[in-house]
Amino acid sequence: MHVMNGIESRHDGMVAHKRKRFVRKEKNIDINGLYEEISKGSRLHLSKAITLLESQAEPDQKAGQELLKRLLPNTGNSIRIGVTGVPGAGKSTFIETFGLQLAEAGHKVAVLAIDPSSTVTGGSILGDKTRMEALAKHPNAFIRPSPSSGTLGGVHKKTRETMLLCEAAGYDIILIETVGVGQSETVVRGMVDFFMLLVLTGAGDELQGMKKGIMELADCMIVHKADGDNVKLASKTVREYRQLLHFLQPATLGWTTTALPVSSLERTGFKTVWETIKTFQVEMKASGVWRERRQSQTKDWFHSMIRDRLIDSFFSQQGKKELVTELEKQLLTGEMTVASAVDKILPMK
User: Fold this and answer.
1) pTM score, whole prediction
2) Is the dihedral of CA 311, 314, 315, 320 positive or negative?
3) pLDDT in tens, 284-342
4) 3-class DSSP state of 263
5) What's the rounded Cα separation, in Å, for the pair 294 and 190?
6) Residue 248, SS3 per DSSP
7) In angstroms, rounded to a whole number, what is the distance separating the alpha carbons of residues 325 and 346?
8) Which residues pair with 111 in a beta bridge?
């Protein structure tokens, strides 16, 4: 018997293909191009540079720091203004109206808005561009929302560096909107020249909920929403805050903190606010306080980065994360005290 050879079988008649493997390509970061475009005031390239600084990837961080080093001679020529306030005070509305008036007057305004990060997912809404739609469209304005990412003080840990990039791009007014009033909110004082605290009318209740510490750090109190039927009450609140401020230590040596009524709805009071800020700048530069404060802030930034780097360096060491996890288990079962666990990780000499 003769058996004929059959044809070679293939699955459904199609030639089998090997599975493609996706390999992440190295990003080619053009530092020279970013430097030139940012120096020209490009908002697109400024955003890209800020993303590099905020990235957790080591190549991005190195590129961001190299770019910042090159741009450093072009920084330091702005007025840095911090804006915080009690919940519902209307920080975003105030900043948009104030920023629009400054932009329309020919200033270049950068807004660094910090959104709180979720303690559950770590995410942030980052809706400041939506809330400040009119300002976001203005050619003289730049808005950059960033997550707080668990950083205390109502700011992002890269806010200082972002501020320098904005200055290098030609923005002469930097507005930093913090997460909101709290005990850790005082960190923003360490990175701005002029600090504003927004409050609402009805000072009796507000004074009870206000932290004395943050009031002592404010260079100006803004009684917001002073419009309509609220005008008389706002005037009363302004008087009460001015009386109170006489009993507090001034935030800046040689400067008397005051309270001012402002309405974003009617666009009133902003001229006085801007004149107050300009007067502050002139007087503090003449007395030398401006320069001393900037130098002190640079030293504080330096020490803050040392602490951050030490923490990152510790957890990057082999076996440290596993050791911490194991010690956490022993702490929860009551086998060890917290102090003993810390000694296991960082033994005292």
Assistant:
1) 0.81
2) negative
3) 999 999 999 999 999 988 888 898 888 888 888 888 889 999 999 999 998 889 999 99
4) strand
5) 9
6) coil
7) 15
8) 143, 175
